[in-house]
Amino acid sequence: MRAKASTAIRYHALDALRGICAVLVCLFHFRANNPFTEAPLIRGSWQFVDLFFVLSGFVIAASYSERLTNGMLLRRFALLRLARLYPLHLAILIVFVGFELGAVALNLHGLRAMFDDAHAPSAIVTNLLLLQSFGLHHGLTWNGPAWSIAAEFWTCLLFALGVRIAGFRSWWLILLASLAAVGLAIIAPRGIASTADWGFLRCVYGFAVGALCWQAMQHFDLPAPEPKVGTMLETAVILCAVVFVVQGGGLAAPFVFAPVVLVFAIGRGIISAFLRLRIFQLLGSISYSVYLLHTFIQARLDDVLRASGVDATVIVHGIRMLGRTEWEGIYLTFLMLGLVILVSGAAYILIELRAQEWGRRITNRLLNPGGGSLSFVELLPDQHGGSSPIESPKTV
After folding, report:
1. Which residues on neighbouring strands pair with residue 393, listed in sequence order?
2. Considering only CA atoms, which of 245, 174, 234, 242 is closest in space to residue 210?
């Protein structure tokens, strides 16, 4: 039985999951001397980026597939995506570059080498053009996590072009996912762990699987389970995902995370109810800022400790970690998380929300000069920033 889009809703459980996974990625990048830094779940949390990609495909397909099929202008779609993704990325890149220039001006070379390979002036251009996931650099540059934002922008455009040419059809989404997976296995030297080295293929792979998830919800009449059954399903998919991540992940990641997205989109279990608590919803709202800001804050915390002259590091298994003792490492970890959440909240209010309004006005002005305006639902967040109103499937 075919379903069609109807009432606009929020997928609250998916918002919360996004926020939790953003924090886990944050902890993955922070090497502190504490009992959980080397925990298998934390060390495998880099794989949650693939969950973001699946979720992004689900959200974008739910929000735009019908409109693109019905003639939505590609440039309108591109401008809306750019308005959502680019302002915060640009602001943080400016802050990164400004810090390097300031450190050089103040002769702070004792902290570390300024404008090194990871902060090369030439990489500023590729970061500005969102090209840092196409193998143009040997590693991550400037704001490392932004590679996935760049990859998502081009993937969204590829999806929109596909829908406009061939319609929202499963055959080309399956072909796209297959080609991207083969490309990861053949072209990308690190496979599913690719970032700057053809991470674009990784994004396309997960995004296509996420779009197929939405299509499955749209075309099959799946009755909402009873709460007890929903709880069992939610527990099962979470356990499967955690075991997969702990075991090191792999090329099957999008297909492991796809059931998580589907089950929590339905949201009928006790875990979903727990994730609807306000604290998790707030975390979901600022998750995009958390994801893009955390490495800058972590690096500056390290710089402050170096500049203070206090040796607050220890070598554990050949790895430099912050915190001479575990208690010190725990303190620094919570201090880092507090700073990340505080600054991310400010960035969400001062940059993200204002950029969404700005994007809506600018797009209206450029593409609709004769009048009329975009609805809020057209300026949707991406995988990192919440799934505010997207259309839910109602069977008919």
Report:
1. 5
2. 174
Query: 262-284, pLDDT tens digit by residue?
Result: 999 988 889 999 999 999 999 99
CB–CB of 81/153 below 8 Å? yes
Nearest-angstrom CA–CA distance, 347 and 340: 10
Alpha-helical segments (H) within 187-325: 199-219, 227-246, 253-266, 270-275, 278-285, 287-307
Task: Classify burial at 364, counting beta carbons within 10 Å of its beta carbon; exposed 0-12, middle 13-18, buried 19 or more.
Answer: middle
Residue 171: CB atoms within 10 A of its CB come to 9
CA 271 to CA 233: how far, in whole Å? 10
Quote the tokens at residue 10.
Answer: 């929020």
In degrees and rounded to multiples of 5, residue 379 shows phi and psi of: -105, 75
CA distance 334 to 345: 16
**Is pTM, for the whole model, over 0.85?**
yes
Q: Residue 10 and residue 162: Cα distance in Å, rounded?
A: 26
Predicted confidence band at 128 (pLDDT cuts at 50, 70, 90)? very high
Contacts 24+ apart (CB under 8 A), 90-96: 90/128, 91/347, 91/351, 92/143, 92/146, 92/292, 92/293, 92/296, 93/124, 93/127, 93/128, 93/142, 93/143, 93/146, 95/296, 96/142, 96/143, 96/296
